[in-house]
């Protein structure tokens, strides 16, 4: 405990609380992040209330009264929510299977490639692959599943595919780590107590996974919500895939209205935060429910 | 006592084998367990005792042989269909369920009505002496308490067989002794049949009605604790049962169950075990308790004391013979390190085995 | 893990593996398309191109000034890596070894840039950089990329450093080492593998980082991925094959470093300590 000795110097007192020369090593990095991350947000917030013309709320009012602008929220949610859900729903059963595999490394390596290459490369690739003359359509035609090429580019589906390809591996790897983190003895115990595979999943795995899955959803969702290059290259950036990041970018870097751009960026952040809070609140409800709901 | 075990008469393992690739974990195990017995599977790490237990539970498939419950094959059944209770080494309590919900899990899986479930859980909690802890989550319990929950969870379903996989190895020494007594008490109260895996010789000796000693996937000996302690079947079992002194040599005489062995420049006599004939390479095995400082100079083993420890009631020392053999002995009075002593072994307690070690 | 061997379970397993295979197959096919196209003379109406050539690579190199772009990319990337190490390693050490009031807040500070997507904080950041005149410059791009990279280094290294028993350091001191000797003989050797691994990951992530560089780069400070974006954007003007050639060069650059990184790290660490 701190100064139990009557003559503890200020330096010793600080050290007892964990503050000494070593702690100062965090200072440069902390200052850097505050300057380059926290400050721009604060500045952006301030800027958003200082529009080129009109009162301090003018930017926000302008945003919410112009359908071309506020529709971007709906358009972005329309893409990001389904993609995140589909990723998660696909990731869970596959992660369950893969955890039984002894040589997971090959699969995880392959899956890491799309994440690493990024959305621009994937968008460029899909422009080739999903085109009306591309191999995807050709294969479907050849198999007789379709009678003429389906339109997958410059619309919703191109963006959906791109986000799925770059987003699914992330969701999958995170889910795999959660699933692998569950003590295998729990499954064995449940089996000896009479639970078959379905019931083991329902009563043991799912309750233990829900907190992790909620976080997984939030992380993937915010990534997908801020989609930009795929929406521009693969989608219809003036139409159904006009996402909010495009609106923000245009305001700031095409119209040079930094104030409006900041406002839209703030709105973008706010929507992401709202969804995350909602999901985490729902998770807490579920969790409490599962503990008290089971009779015993 | 309303928790009871389902009735069965025998569980037999018939030539049970289990391979992992090219590794043979179990090699044709034959074992019969009768109702009401407390059987310990004892052996060093890797001997196959946990594998055997997991095969009985259905958590591992067997690669040859059969497992029969009252003559009916059960080795084809999935673990959830066998109905045995199991207590795991790390307890495996469901972290998101309270004590009550953990205990009641098996009953819930069987669709037991709520009222009866509640009653049976109460009985189980009383049996393991955990009253007052029922609403807690496993993370809020101590190791010993978690162990009790694990036991309650396994017995509340009234299984024909309770399987325990080194349940005490994660507890500290004092708790281990307490829980040991608890486990035996619960077994007796329930009139249960228990198969208990352990690597601790003392645990097996104090708990079991019968002990099965395994090594390298093979049963080396089955018997009561007394039988194993007094008459180990081979050198490995003897080593495991605490016969820690070993003096190799050549068998110089063998008749009527007794033998003599020429080791170094001395002759020791003892009980002949195994297939021994004159001229065979042999080894004399005896406990530290049976090797004491001798007053006579004749017929003893000369050795130099290396270290001596005070054990309260007596002293235990390590010594080395002139030909470099280490020995453990006991003494009533301390002997200084570096001194020479003459040690004598009680010939009635020395076992002489063929040197090959196995059967 | 219990293996269920009923028919239902087997069918389910087959379905799951088919799905996985389908996914992987599509990714592979997509990449194959790009590679094939980049080597084709003309490819319009058929499964495969009519003829192959390598001229697109040469023309892409010239057209997009890939030599300069690659040089710029690596200058930026290596600067970011070096600075991330400089800022991140000491901070990670301090956070791993000391417990102090406000530590949780500091950890949150370092966690946020990893959780908030680059586009979301990129626009405010770019705004600020342009206001101070760093927008469109080399240093603007470097600073922007430091925002996710320094926290990444910190969060990845903390568990590694925590794993090194502090008693080892105490033992070194007992045997007479001063701080410099402690670092040189004990800490640096023990930490080097982890630090190298973290820096390799920063390298790969920075090469592939689009949004931040896009928002802060000028014409002479573009990285390869941003140049690729612009070329696709202006796709009507340029031949598809030369864009594909550029895409292949980008892929090769990224994958080489990825494969090097994977020799030292587990693939899952690329997604970082996002949680």
Characteristic terms for this protein:
heterotrimer; A: 296 residues; mainly alpha; MetI-like fold; 12 helices; 74% helix; flat; disordered C terminus; C: 275 residues; 2 domains; 11 helices
Tell me what the structure shows.
The complex is a heterotrimer of chains A (296), B (359) and C (275). Chain A has 296 residues and is mainly α. Chain A has twelve helices and no strands. The two termini of chain A are 45 Å apart. Chain B is of the alpha+beta class. Chain B folds into two domains: 10-235, P-loop containing nucleotide triphosphate hydrolases (Rossmann fold), CATH 3.40.50.300; 245-354, Beta Barrel (OB fold (Dihydrolipoamide Acetyltransferase, E2P)). Helix content of chain B is 25%, strand content 35%. Chain B has a six-stranded mixed β-sheet with strand order 6-7-8-3-9-10, with helices on both faces. Chain C has helices spanning 7-38, 55-63, 66-97, 103-115, 118-131, 138-163, 166-174, 179-208, 211-216, 224-233, 240-262. The longest helix of chain C is centred in the first third of the chain and has 32 residues, at 7-38. Chain C starts with 6 loop residues before the first helix and ends in a 13-residue tail after the last helix. Classes of the chains: A mainly alpha (296), B alpha+beta (359), C mainly alpha (275). Chains A and B meet through α8, α9 and α12 of A and α2, α3 and α4 of B.
